[in-house]
Predict the 3D structure of the following.
Amino acid sequence: MFYREAGDFKTSYVDDSQTFPIAFDRYRYYFVLVIAFGIIPFIINDYWANAVMVPFLIYAIAAIGLNILTGYCGQVSLGTGGFMAVGGYACYKLMTAFPDVSIMIHLLLAGFITAGVGVLFGLPSLRIKGFYLAVATLAAQFFLVWLFNKVPWFYNYSASGQISAPERFVFGVPVTGPNVEAWAKYTVCLIFVTGCAWLARNLTRGTIGRSWMAIRDMDIAAEIIGVNPLKAKLTAFAVSSFFIGIAGALLFAVYLGAVEVGEAYGINKSFLVLFMIIIGGLGSIFGAFAGAAFMVLLPVLLKNVLVGGLGWDTALATHFEFVIVGALIIIFLIAEPHGLAQLWKLAKEKLRLWPFPH
Amino acid sequence: MKDMADGYITEDGRKIGGVMMEMKNITLRFGGVVAIKDISFDIREGEIRAIIGPNGAGKSSMLNVISGFYHPQEGEVWFHGSKRPSMKPYQVAQQGIARTFQNIALFEGMTVLDNVMTGRLTHMKTNMLQQALWWGKAQAEETAQREKVEKIIDFLEIQHIRKTPVGRLPYGLKKRVELARALAAEPKLLLLDEPMAGMNVEEKEDMSRFILDVNDEFGTTIALIEHDMGVVMDLSDRVVVMDYGKKIGDGTPDEVRNNQDVIDAYLGVAHD
Ligand SMILES: Nc1ncnc2c1ncn2[C@@H]1O[C@H](COP(=O)(O)OP(=O)(O)OP(=O)(O)O)[C@@H](O)[C@H]1O
Ligand SMILES: [Mg+2]
């Protein structure tokens, strides 16, 4: 009954292109922000931060990034892990080379560096499409991991070949290194997620977003209305890699603290983020969040229920998770390519008409 | 039709200006197939120019040459009095040429409004950073463009489907949305490839009215391909007739109708 546009008429085009055209949606969005910034930091503990909230926020950024490239611009990429690695290593090099500069700036710069690398690997997309582009990005994935393994300069010649984040502070509070508290980790990630989601939303609702979608839906028609395919695809690679780079940098500096490239940024990461946007919904920012939440929560949930509750073997539970994710991917690809976001939208449409469906 | 120094006056009293686009000796080959054979014709400011001919005559190929999809092996394209260098389709669009396709080419995943908004891309000036931050300028531009787009939506009477995803629309409406997207660009030259194919009589009448109104109200020059002879005779000021890649007629509808080569081509007289 409350979820209505009734009496909520738009009197200007500015209002009509709002992110949340229905007032109730808008309030719920502010409500989420208030809880996320005003309440959770004060009650979060180590378990919730490390097992759920921090990975959720970081992967949400990566999923927004991949969704811009794949969901909005239609360019399939299997290089997400590699681009996250670029973000992580860029952040590490910056942190160690310029210890006096704020870590927040380094995280941002890591995004810009990854954007540059993304553009470079995006160049083939002008010639090749679909499956072949996916293979080319897969090659980028393996090349980047190999590079960070092979060239000692990237890990400052450390004996282990790993990189580990030195301690850095924001307003006197440690946000990287061994003494980070749960709430600090969470808050840093939350700030970046909020900023990234806002930027992504602005870009996708405007001119550039429409030229990405035009390329995705029909590249011939896109060209005829004046979209320069080179510019559209490369900006999509740049923006997408910017977000993915920030996610990779956060994963290294704030979440894990120390990483080995193959383990943290391997091909599984590419698939994980791809699954997130397929399940969450291609071409939707909300979908990126939904998919990230789903893929982060599922293993936690299964572990608690199957291993903790029913006493299953851990290995068996892990395998069961693969089966579920695999089945879901197939179901979503066939039945609902727009993922959880679309299911949510349909539910809302039903709710809008409820209780008089006609 | 009355000839003037630079242009002519049509039977219904409209003033047609100088040459806007001129195709000079265009030849286009696909491997062994010659789709266009040494064809020349011009399109004048403000006129409605039809291109007709049997299936496979090379009409669509000609539009594709104009819009930069195909690059002819021989011949020159002149636009506004100067020779046009080889161009990509998006560059042609930026010169003020818009078009629709024989097989509808809309963005199926986007709403009608978004589809028509994409038509204004060539008029958008804000850069990516401004858009990302949704600063005053980006928002103001979006609103200004939206106002123009709404006018076109009103003009083509598609207000009621504004927020509908294009994929869900019936064929006739899709054709109209595609026209709206082309019009949103405020083109100087509008190319229409069979805008009425597959429509019923009523839809054809609507579409004819829109085409005439566009020409009349916005002064847009229009080149259209159409198979329905009645429509062609009613709408167009001058007609080019093609057959097997060659030009077999060029003139007013009446002249073309009485041209023996054209009659033969349409009656299917055997080629030797
Ligand atoms: N991309 C292409 N590659 C090869 N041959 C082509 C191509 N485009 C057109 N042709 C050929 O050029 C000739 C002219 O085709 P075109 O589509 O221009 O004809 P048309 O006059 O538009 O016909 P219709 O009335 O059926 O639309 C045909 O023989 C066609 O097979
Ligand atoms: Mg054709």
Summary: Strands of chain A lie at 163-164, 168-170, 173-176, 258-259. Chain A has one domain: 18-353.
